[in-house]
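quick one before i forget lol
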Amino acid sequence: MKKIFYLVICIMALLFAACEPNAPATSSKVETGAASDITTESVVLHGVVNVDISQYEDVEFGMMVSEDKAELNARDGEMYRAKVLIGKDFELTIDELSPETKYYYCAWVFLNNTQYEFGAIKEFTTLEDPKIDGIGTFSVSDSKQVTFSKGNLQYTQSTNTWSFASTQWEVIGTDNVTGGSVSSDLTYGDSKEGTALADKVDLFGWSTSATNFGVSTSDNNNDYSGSFVDWGKNKIGNDAPNTWRTLTYDEWKYLLNTRPNASSLKGVAQVNGVNGLILLPDSWTCPSGVTFKSGFHNNYCVEYYAAYQTFTAEQWSKLESAGAVFLPAAGDRYGSNVYVVQSYGNYWSATEDNSLYADYLYFHLGAADMDDYNRDCGRSVRLVKDLQ
């Protein structure tokens, strides 16, 4: 009698497990892989498609992600579609995540528009937000230090709002303009001849009283007349007006070339697939597990940024936590045309050269220095905050 009772209990337990809504069936046709390059706001998810895709007319694959495991169990999380399959493997970069948050994910495949198949559910947790108000401590004169904003300045026209890029490597690039198509050159990077300014932009003409902080496609220098009006006068994100400001010519010059050990505190690199210039803080200790090489490359091809040195998002998190600043090679804009993305970086200063020209920081693979050029040219803006 006890044996029969025990057998009934076992059968009921098996039936309950089979019907458990929190343990959905998985498919052998798709495999959920590891999560890598985890930062405070992004992750790279890996998956495997275990079918011969040549046997299907239509194949889609990707990841489902949610903070709520129950949503994944119900197959109701947010769907992300991957574009490239290398062999049987694919990967997806998921951005705009919340710091210090556990996420659940699973791979999926959709065959011949008939039925989704799902892999096992896995999890990852984004890194802790260091809650840095600014990044690093940098001398811009023999008596003044500043800290940098977390990313390049951005403006959204439809909402009239200013913000900083969510990461130091984020750039809008050729998407600063609409229309046209992107062309790529091994030396000069990406370019696009567009038709109009996009809603969200990060390349600005020099800001004066005659312009809306340089948000314009005018290529007439006279339209940028007048004295400089600092981008920091705006409310940026949650920061009150005048929290941030633009460096002057002399301050950029001092930071680049005059502060103690200046030549060893800068170097070109590729960070998470984006080319640019790294600036190190005054007091620098390289984090363990990462190696930084100062200096520049003598070859001008875009690919040599990565050849000089490259950092994953995870490695960059260590450098950033130690105070390193990354200025991405975001290119420049002339009217509705964008050029030299991933090749050149150009960052405005607050200093005018004359009624038509203003001073700016430029860099490419071989050098970084100051120059002056037309006010109507759309360039990047990276703001700073004075330290007491």
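fyi The helical segments are 2-19, 69-73, 249-258, 304-308, 313-321.
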